[in-house]
Amino acid sequence: MNTKELNKSVGAVSPSLAGRDGVGLTLFDKIWDAHVVQNVEDGPTQLYIDRLYCHEVTTPQAFDTLRDKNIRVFRPEQVVAMPDHNTPSDQQERIDDPIGRKQVETLAKNCAEFGIRHFAMGTKDNGIIHVVGPEKALSLPGMTIVCGDSHTSTHGAVGAIAMGIGTSEVAQVLASQTILQSKPKTMRINIEGTLPEGTTAKDVALYIMAQMTTSGATGYAVEYAGSTVRNMSMEGRLTLSNLSIEMGSRAGLIAPDETTFAYLKDREYAPKGEAWDEAVAKWKQLYSDENAVFDKEVTYRAEDIVPRITYGTNPGAGIAIDECIPTLEEIDEADRGQFLSMLEYMQFQPGQKLEGTPVDYCFLGACTNGRIEDFRAFASVVKGKKKADNVVAWLVPGSWLVRQQIIDEGIDKILEEAGFELRLPSCSSCLAMNPDKVPTGKLSISTSNRNFVGRQGPGARTILASPLVVAASAITGVVTDPRKL
Amino acid sequence: MAKQKFDIIQSTCIPIQIDNCNTDLIIPARYLASTTRDPQFFGDAFMHDLRFDAEGNPVADFVMNKPEYSEQPKQGIHEIIIGGQNWGSGSSREHAAWAIAGYGVRVVISSSFADIHRNNLLNCFVLPVIVSKEFQQELFETVNANPQAEVRVDVPNQTVINMSTGNSESFEINGYKKYCLMNAFDDIDFLLENKGKIEEWERR
User: Fold this and answer.
1) Which whole-number Å values give the CA distances from A463 to A193, A207, B97, in the listed order?
2) Among A177, A235, A236, A414, which residue has the fewest nearby CB atoms (within 10 Å)?
3) In whole angstroms, what is the distance from residue A207 CA to residue B3 CA?
């Protein structure tokens, strides 16, 4: 990254705007306002984009658009690409599926043709975009970040506006480093207090979704705040921001603080030396003013949250792990048809307790829970125990850096002794685009982000949970509360 | 995708009464590995796993396979989908919008859309129309009762009319996007025309 580019991204704050006319600005406002190229009359905002990430699935047609129009990439140095969805997790010498292979090769070719930095499959730089971006400090506070992937919200955890976009919009950013967007409303979600034992950021997100449904934050950019969030590790914050889209919000921001700075410092693309000090000074202005007004504000208590699981086919259909699935009477009459069809797919009954239900597959990984802290958590549960024989377990680091850290910390040995195998970085079983598919009818308990019909494979059934719950279930072979193991 | 200018569309409708119809349902992930832009490829994959069973046979009781709704869209026929609330939630895959456009649909009416999918539809020249829950319900009832019932979407006047009952609602669309739809004008062309402003921002 050159200095000019860097200065642009870290200079993206307008302190002069803060507190103007006595009206405070939100964190989102500060970053948004600093990136406005123009407000189109009776239309959207043309917003400058600091960082575009490209993966193989949502970009081939965007590059075709550029070729159609005979234009180059406008700011190739601000674009970073890597394949992750089609990548196998058992070996990375080859991709057997010819269509998936062609897509990965197409990304490499497009990057070569248009001069874009490309982290190839199987190299130490590769991994899931939403894991690699923050851990290489390619995603920095104050930036605007987009990618043709809804979980781009993840990068908001460093204090950036990060949003998923479509392929047409990828082409727009490639062509102009800007995008046309209507400014969303703002919502602050406060979580206050200390999380009970065995409860993680994943459980916090699953709890919020169950409270506000999967469309509760549609139309809003969310900021997470409160003492629980302040006390979360960077990995936990990335998990929380990752799941913003499952509440309907495209963006989930967290104000940068000492935790953020400590996480980013000395990472590969982080500013160094004096540039770092200057950057931090600017980043420290990235917070919602005390008198900032949000369009909506909600507060939850950490002490109300326990380890959670989902029972349905959207991430909002969840319960505390020791609760029963709602009975039909507990569901609004208008929603009963869809409730029953979800349960029919999942092969569950209204009122059923899921704790103790046999599981076939356990998946640790994805952009939601594929970071070092997730593997430490998993290992803490399985250490000295043995994997259940009835379970197939896929433990898939989110990046080669994470995988190396797992090995450096000796976590791989703990996993191995417990009967688990550490696989290679990939999106893996989060979505059925590579060999890690859950067969029809099988029940998977997974740290990924979506339990949609067919998401992990046609006919596959998915329970979403934290790494601790998945680890406990992998040991017993049934849905298990880690507090009771 | 072929761009067709918008004016007034009056058509029979396909009622897809599924709330939270996510983009994984609209097009399953295995169709995403393709690098093609062929509208037919994506149109054939539209709602695939609800339309077809594991052996590839049509699922008889899924709405798109019922004889009264199964005709592929063309002018005046099935150009409009009435969808459940929170239409297009989940994955950002524009392939879902390609599938809808590739199938031949020009308008999706719902009481709410997921943000990313709504933008994708607009960029693929499919118009997302947001109506009240009550009007959405009325449209479902009308179209379920009479598959020949027509709905009129008047883009210049921003109204949607249930031709069977005469009831109508107005819908929101900003002036810029309305101009784009009515003139088959792309965002990317607008942005390329504004290079000067972008470079000016960069020099700041």
Assistant:
1) 27, 14, 28
2) A414
3) 43
Predicted ipTM > 0.90? yes
Is the CB of residue B119 less than 8 Å from the CB of residue A165? Answer: yes
- Second-level CATH architecture of B8-203: Alpha-Beta Barrel (3.20)
Using DSSP's 3-state secondary structure scheme, residue A474 falls into: helix
The DSSP secondary structure of A381-437, one letter per residue, reads: HHTT----TT-EEEE--SBHHHHHHHHHTTHHHHHHHTT--B--SS-GGGSSSSS-P
Residue A48 has its nearest CB partner, among B113, B174, B201, at B201
What pLDDT, in 10s, does the model give residues A360-399? 999 999 999 999 999 999 999 999 999 999 999 999 999 9
CA distance A171 to chain B (A): 7
Distance, CA of A47 to CA of A335 (rounded, Å): 39
Do residues A443 and A463 touch, judged by C-beta distance below 8 A?
A: yes
Is A3-12+23-300's fold the same as A310-484's? yes
A95-129 exposure pattern, b = at least 16 Cβ within 10 A, e = fewer: bebebbebbbebbeebbeebebbbbebbeebbbbb
CATH class of A310-484: alpha beta
Q: Please check the confidence at residue A229 and state whether its pLDDT lies above 50.
A: yes
Residue A70 CA to residue A65 CA, distance in Å, equals: 8
**Residue B85: CB atoms within 10 Å:** 17
Which sequence spans correspond to the domains of chain A? Answer: 3-12+23-300, 310-484
Q: How confident is the model at residue A20 (pLDDT cuts 50, 70, 90)?
A: low
Pairing mode, if any, of strands B127-130 and A461-464? unpaired
State percent of chain A over pLDDT 70: 95
Write down the pLDDT at residue A346.
98
**Among the CATH numbers 2.160.10.10, 3.30.70.20, 3.30.499.10, 1.10.10.60, which is that of A3-12+23-300?**
3.30.499.10
pLDDT score of A4: 40
State yes or no: pLDDT of A5 exceeds 60.
Answer: no
pLDDT at A23: 81
Residue ranges in chain B modelled with pLDDT below 70: 1-2
pLDDT of residue B3: 81
Count of other CB atoms within 10 angstroms of residue A67:
11
pLDDT tens digits for range B54-69? 999 999 999 999 999 9
Q: Please name the residues in contact with A110: beta carbons below 8 A apart, sequence gap of 6 or more.
A: A59, A60, A63, A81, A116
Q: Residue A112 corresponds to which tokens in the numbers above?
A: 């070569």
**Which token pair is A67?**
């070729």
Task: Tell me what the pLDDT averaged over chain A comes to.
Answer: 95
- Domain residues of chain B, as ranges? 8-203
Q: What is A150-190 written as a DSSP string?
A: GGGGGGGGGS-EEEE--HHHHHHHHHHSEEEEPPPEEEEEE
Q: Check CB contact under 8 Å for B34 and A103.
A: yes
> Closest residue of A to B192, CA-based?
A176
pLDDT tops 50 at residue A1: no
Closest to A99 (Cβ–Cβ): which among B33, B93, B197? B33
**Segment A215-227, tens digit of pLDDT:** 999 999 999 999 9
The Cα–Cα gap between A152 and A149 comes to 6
